[in-house]
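FAQ

Q: What does a record look like?
A: Structure on top, sequence underneath. For example:
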C-alpha cells in the first residue's frame, strides 16, 4: 500500500535538489503534490517529467518570503487538489560563507526571510485549515548547522536554529489537534546549494561526517515520506538528523 494515497501535499523550493526528490517520493507514495519554487520555469520542466511518469504533480511559482505569494500558492493548491494535508517547508538558501564582521544587513535579512520567515508564513497559511480538520503534517527542513553551528555561516546557522525552535513550539501548540510538526537536520547533501559555498567550506562540513560521504536527496525524501505518513504516529516536535552520524543528540 502506498503510504500517502490521495493526500494533498505542498512542497516549497521544489524545482531541484532535496525539494524535487521530496516531490517525487511523496507522489510515488500516492500523494497529489503541488510543487512550488521561485524558479517557475525549472519547476514546470521538472513537473512535466514527473507527470509523464503518471504522477500527480503540478508546478507553481512562489516566493516563500512573501506573504502574498505564499497565500496565493496555498489557495491555488487547495482549489486544485483540496485541503492541504502535508506542508513541507523546504525552500532555503545557504547564503555566502563569510566571517561575522564581513556580513552585511542584506546578507542577514535575505537569509532570515528565505530560511526562517518563510516557515512562519507557510505554516501560518495552512494551520487554520489543519486545526479545523484536526489533521495535518508540517515538516521543516532545518540543518545540522542549526544544531551545531557552522563557522562562516552565522545567518544560516541562526535561521536553521530558529526553524528547530519554531518546530518544537508549534508542535506543542497543536499536539492535541491531530497535527504533527517535525523537522529534519541534514548534514551535507549533494545538491546545487553547495555551489553557494567555497570548496573549503564544503570540505569543513564533509570532514565532520562519520559515514565519510555526502548524503543524497532521496535519503532525505525517505524520511520526509515517513514523517508525512500515519506510520509516524508518536513523534512530534522533533528534529531528526540525517547527517551520517555527525550529531548524535
Ligand atoms: N544540501 C545540503 O547540504 C543541505 C544541508 C542541510 C539543509 N539543507 C536544506 O535543505 C533545503 C533544500 O536545499 P537544497 O540543497 O535542495 O538546495 P537547492 O539550492 O538545490 O534548492 C533550493 C530550491 O529553493 C528554491 N528557492 C530559493 N529561494 C526561494 C524562495 N524565496 N522561494 C521559493 N523557492 C526558493 C531555489 O530556486 C531552489 O530550487 C534548504 O532549506 C537547505 O537549507 C540542505
Amino acid at each position: 500500500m502506498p503510504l500517502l494515497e490521495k493526500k494533498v501535499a505542498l512542497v516549497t523550493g521544489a524545482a531541484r535538489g532535496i525539494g524535487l526528490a521530496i516531490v517525487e517520493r511523496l507522489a510515488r507514495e500516492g500523494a497529489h503534490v503541488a510543487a512550488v519554487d521561485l524558479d517557475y520555469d525549472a519547476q514546470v520542466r521538472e513537473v512535466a517529467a514527473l507527470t509523464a511518469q503518471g504522477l500527480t504533480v503540478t508546478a507553481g511559482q512562489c516566493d516563500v518570503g512573501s506573504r502574498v505569494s505564499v497565500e496565493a500558492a496555498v489557495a491555488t493548491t487547495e482549489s486544485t487538489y483540496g485541503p492541504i494535508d502535508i506542508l513541507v517547508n523546504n525552500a532555503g538558501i545557504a547564503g555566502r560563507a563569510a566571517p561575522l564582521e564581513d556580513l552585511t544587513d542584506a546578507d542577514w535579512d535575505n537569509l532570515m526571510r528565505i530560511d526562517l520567515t518563510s516557515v512562519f508564513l507557510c505554516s501560518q497559511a495552512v494551520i487554520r485549515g489543519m486545526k479545523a480538520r484536526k489533521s495535518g503534517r508540517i515538516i521543516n527542513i532545518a540543518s545540522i548547522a542549526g544544531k551545531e553551528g557552522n563557522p562562516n555561516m552565522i545567518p544560516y546557522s541562526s535561521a536553521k536554529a530558529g526553524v528547530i525552535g519554531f518546530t518544537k513550539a508549534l508542535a506543542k501548540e497543536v499536539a492535541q489537534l491531530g497535527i504533527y510538526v517535525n523537522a529534519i537536520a541534514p548534514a551535507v547533501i549533494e545538491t546545487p546549494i553547495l555551489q553557494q559555498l567555497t570548496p573549503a567550506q564544503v570540505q569543513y562540513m564533509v570532514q565532520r561526517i562519520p559515514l565519510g560521504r555526502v548524503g543524497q536527496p532521496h535519503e532525505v525524501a525517505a524520511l520526509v515520506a515517513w514523517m508525512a505518513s500515519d506510520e509516524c504516529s508518536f513523534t512530534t516536535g522533533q528534529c531528526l538528523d540525517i547527517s551520517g552520524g555527525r550529531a548524535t543528540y
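Q: Is there anything notable about this one?
A: The longest strand covers residues 179-186.
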